[in-house]
């Protein structure tokens, strides 16, 4: 996945997700909108995350579904190539985020 066909992590070692807006909901869920930058290409996206307070901090969990073709990751995508048969790679992938914050 580090190759030029995918994330090209040698040239683009960082991906950044910046939350622009968050709306609190019920049961510790929040609806967020933000900007995801991969390979210096930025797109807005929406997700729902859950923040649960613990005895000494908080835990954040979310799953963000990302269309890799929006970030110029076209390898074996049916959007760009035909007759791929069983070599097709799906365009969407899940980014599961689990962050633990502990108070000091």
Explain this structure to me?
This protein has 104 residues and is mainly β. A hairpin with a 4-residue loop joins strand 1 and strand 2. 3% of the residues are buried. The mean pLDDT is 85. It has a five-stranded antiparallel β-sheet, with no helix packed on it. The protein contains no helices and five strands.
What is the strand and helix layout of this fold?
Blueprint: E1 16-24, E2 29-38, E3 41-54, E4 57-67, E5 92-102
Antiparallel strand pairs: 1-2, 2-3, 3-4, 4-5
**What count of helical segments does DSSP give?**
0
Based on Cα principal axes, name the global outline: elongated
Radius of gyration: 17 Å
Beta-strand portion reads over 45%
Reported for the largest beta sheet, the result is:
5 strands, antiparallel
What is the share of helical residues?
Answer: under 10%
Number of strands: 5
Span of the ends, CA to CA? 36 Å
Chain-averaged pLDDT: 85
Counting helices, strands and paired strands, the structural category is: mainly beta
Strand order of the largest sheet: 1-2-3-4-5
Sequence of secondary-structure elements: EEEEE
Q: Could you list the spans in which at least 5 consecutive residues all have pLDDT below 50?
A: none
Report a brief summary of the structure.
This protein is mainly β. Helix content is 0%, strand content 53%.
Features:
104 residues; mainly beta; 5-stranded antiparallel β-sheet; 0% helix; elongated
């Amino acid at each position: 996945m580090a190759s030029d066909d995918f994330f090209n992590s040698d040239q683009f070692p960082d991906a950044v997700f910046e939350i622009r807006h968050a709306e609190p909901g019920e049961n510790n869920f929040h609806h967020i909108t933000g900007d995801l930058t991969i390979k210096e290409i930025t797109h807005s996206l929406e997700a729902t995350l859950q923040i649960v307070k613990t005895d000494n901090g908080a835990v954040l969990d979310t799953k963000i579904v990302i269309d890799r073709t929006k970030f110029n990751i076209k390898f074996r995508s049916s959007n760009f190539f035909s007759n791929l048969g069983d070599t097709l790679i799906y365009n969407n992938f899940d980014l599961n985020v689990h962050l633990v914050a502990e108070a000091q």
